[in-house]
Structures are given as C-alpha cells and as structure tokens.
Design a protein that fits this description.
By secondary structure, the protein is α/β, with parallel strands linked by helices. Helices cover 34% and strands 18% of the residues. The chain has a single domain, classed as P-loop containing nucleotide triphosphate hydrolases (Rossmann fold, 3-Layer(aba) Sandwich). The chain has eight helices and nine strands. It has a seven-stranded mixed beta sheet with strand order 5-4-6-7-3-8-9, with helices on both faces. It has a two-stranded antiparallel sheet with strand order 1-2. The termini are far apart. 41% of the residues are buried.
Amino acid sequence: MSSSPTTVAALRSLLAARFPERTRRSAGFIATGVRPVDEALGGGLPAGRLTELVSAAPGTGGQTVLAQLLRTTRTARQRVALIDGADGFVPAEVPPDTLRHLVWVRARSAAEAFAATDILVRDGNYAVVLLDLRGLPERTLRKTSQTTWHRLRHATESGPVAVVVQSSFPLVPAVPWRLLLNAPIGLNARRRSRSALANELTIEIARGHTDVEEQSA
C-alpha cells in the first residue's frame, strides 16, 4: 500500500516517477469477486465505463464489496487506486497482503478527491479506480458541477480503467450502471467469512437516472 500524497501535485509527480510508461489493457471486465455484482454487470466492472455503487446506509455491504474487490484484484495482480474522500477506509479491517497492489489517497476535500481521481484515471496504470465519497456532506456533493462529472466520464471512456464512484445516495448523473445496496447484512455476519457475506448481498441495479441530473443542475 502506498501512502497518500499530501497534495494533488505530489500525486502527479509520484505517478510520473513510478510509472514512466503506461501499461494499457484491452477493454473487458474486472471481476470483483462479489457474485451478485459480477452477475449484475455481466462479468464484473466494465473497463472504460463508470459505475456507481450506492450504500444506502452503514451495514449494507459497501465495505464488504471493497474488501472483496481488493482480495480478487490482488490475486489477479491488478492495481487498484482508492481515493478516500472522507478518510473512512480502515486498512486494519482487511488482510495486509491485499493492500500491496493498492494506492490509497486520503483526500482533504471533495474537490481534491475529484482532482486526484482525474489524475489516476488518466494515468492508465490501474485496473480499477474507486472514488469513495461516502461520509462527505450531501450538500457539498449535490453542488458538484456537470463539468466535473463530464470530465470524469470522458477520462473514463478514453482509457481501459474501470471507475467506481461509491456514494451514500444516488449522485452520478446519467451513469451507465448504478448498483444499490439497500438491505442490511444480518446480525450473524460476524460468524461468517467476508467472502460468504459478499456472495449473499442484495443488489438492485438501475441505469442512467436523469433525476440526479435535475437535482444537480
């Protein structure tokens, strides 16, 4: 796991030094290891596409999906970048070995989170870039400009990276895929492995909601 740079400029310099040449992958799907998610998306996260994962409330499986994604991509030797908008990621909750392929950016604001995401998506060296906006003020996120979303969508569609926006409510305008986690995990969750829990998550799927665009206008 890499430490987060203190500024977006430092992140850009770090990437330039670590990856002087971009490694491009062909378009396809990135398996998450979460059966309901992979089945809903036809094989996994679509490369070159934006996907929104909405965890309606704590305990509905957002952290479980992230943990399983890290485990699966580690096994496949695929790099993952996590932009942590509200410093909510707890490394101690996942096995240390699953963090070796992860670049973790702890942003200090929504604006910095979006800027870091733009750099990492355009860098092209990651199988998955995950922008976690959970925990940031809803009022702030609702003010995200259409230009910001358009820029992120354009960067995603111009490369091979699967981009996931994790939120607490439907947020991304006209997103191709929106996955909704609404059902809380049962009380017996602690007795079961995370892999087992991941495969039993209840996923609702929706596409291209114009209502979010109207709210953000």
